[in-house]
Amino acid sequence: MKTILLNLQILIFLSACAQQNKKAEQNNSKSTNIKLLDSTWTDKVVKSKEEWKKILTPEQYNITREQGTEPAFSSTYNKNHESGIYYCVSCGNPLFNSTNKFESGTGWPSFWKPYSQRSVDVSTDNSMGMQRDEISCKRCNAHIGHVFNDGPLPTGLRYCTDGVALLFKAKGNEPTANLSAYNKATFAAGCFWCEETVFESVKGVAEVISGYAGGTTKNPSYEEVGSGKTGHAETVEIYYDSTKVNYQTLLKVFFASQDPTQVNGQGPDQGTQYRSIVFYRNLYEKQVTENYIHELNKSGKYKKPIATQVIPYEVFWKAEDYHQNYIQHHPTDSYVQNESLPRIKRTQKQFPELFKPEQLLIKSN
Ligand SMILES: [Zn+2]
After folding, report:
1. Which residues pair with 208 in a beta bridge?
2. N or C terminus of the chain with fewer C-beta within 10 Å?
3. Average pLDDT over the chain, rounded to an integer
4. How far is the CA of 45 from the centre of ligand 1 (A)?
5. Could you give the C-alpha distances from 229 to 220, 221, 267, 290, 323, in angstroms and in order?
6. Class of 174-359 per CATH?
7. What are 318-349's pLDDT values in tens digits?
């Protein structure tokens, strides 16, 4: 399971984005001094060819001003999984957020939506004997790439970009600092990729971290947990704003996101590392969880008794970076397509009003 299979259909896209094999090196040195903007919109930037040539490298000029295309797999941004913003290399307009980046397998940095409505313009491009939708910077008109309608949910779009036209700036470490103000809830219910995405789409949830809890080894690796010998389960730690969503609501989503009667497994994933657990932090959480389980057992909704364990929270170990936001980064992975996305949709369908509208994978009515 969870084997990352390159979707064969991606190969078809290769020709769609590719043009001639123009030599383009990843050299942004000339532009590193440009002023980077936040999302605050400023006037259009208009410069002459000569002025652009002064501030851009020949490669950047070729791509952004002459509609060039960089060779596939040439950009270091293609495999970049760092959190941050991709700006227009020409004018500093924020174009894409790393949270909307995904592995398309095409060899060009790919996103399923732009940073904001002020990021890109779309126009028809009839070059290379085909009709495509060209994307350009809304502020300085730089050519950025093309957009295709074979991207992942929720937009179904694939913004196929030239890395040379972008300038990436990593995010500072503000998320961890800001999270101290939130309440935490810790749950396990099978694959943490799925649970992380389910809870990140709940209104009032600020952040969800994938990790391990319930076992004995300190700071275990994914492989150690996967062996089933450490006692840990794949777990998510949820940071929520208790003025916007309460613990009972999180419990409701938690139980709806799984088959809580399944013992030592979830869906196709078998083993104690996929068991269902509520890690309570205080007697209140213990009590409301036990009450809710009692009600579910009484309701007749399930044929078998609830198997979810209710145990005290002790320690949570953050999983390896590549497991964080896994679904966003690998929307074409076969496990994500066949297991995770249907599971997220099944959960959201039960109470669409609890989820952030922009992260609803289903139609709300
Ligand atoms: Zn620009």
Report:
1. 238
2. C
3. 85
4. 7
5. 11, 12, 20, 28, 20
6. alpha beta
7. 999 889 888 877 877 889 989 999 999 999 99
Let me know if 249 is exposed, middle or buried by CB neighbors in 10 A (0-12, 13-18, 19+): middle
Separation between Cα atoms, residue 244 and residue 195, nearest integer Å: 20
Q: How far is the CA of 349 from the centre of ligand 1 (A)?
A: 40
Q: How confident is the model at residue 9 (pLDDT cuts 50, 70, 90)?
A: very low
Catalytic-residue membership of 17 = no
**191 carries an active-site annotation:** yes
Alpha carbon 102 to its chain centroid, in Å, reads 7
Q: Are 235 and 215 in contact (CB under 8 A)?
A: no
What are the domain boundaries of the chain?
9-170, 174-359
- Check if 9-170 and 174-359 are the same fold: no
Q: Amino acid identity of 262?
A: Q
Contact between 64 and 30 (Cβ < 8 Å): no
Residue 34 scores a pLDDT above 50: no
What are the φ/ψ torsions at residue 289 (nearest 5 degrees)? Answer: -70, -45
Residue 365, pLDDT score: 52
Token digits for 146?
A: 């093309």
At residue 125 the predicted structure's pLDDT band, cuts being 50, 70 and 90, is confident
Can you say how many angstroms the Cα of residue 8 is from the centroid of all Cα atoms in its chain? 22
Residue 289 one-letter amino acid:
T
Exposure string of 306-329, with b = 16+ CB inside 10 Å and e = fewer, is bbbebeebeebbebeeebbbbbbb
Residue 78 alpha carbon to ligand 1 centre in Å: 20
Q: How far is CA 219 from the centre of its chain?
A: 24
Q: Which ranges of 189-340 would DSSP assign to H, the alpha helix?
A: 192-200, 222-226, 247-256, 283-299, 326-329, 334-335
CATH superfamily for domain 9-170:
Peptide methionine sulfoxide reductase. (2.170.150.20)
Which one of the listed residues 88, 91, 160, 194 is annotated catalytic?
160
**Ligand 1 mean position, distance from CA 87 (Å):** 8
Instruction: Out of 88, 91, 191, 194, pick the active-site residue.
Output: 191
Which residues on neighbouring strands pair with residue 147, listed in sequence order? 133, 159
Map tokens 């700036």 to a residue. Answer: 169
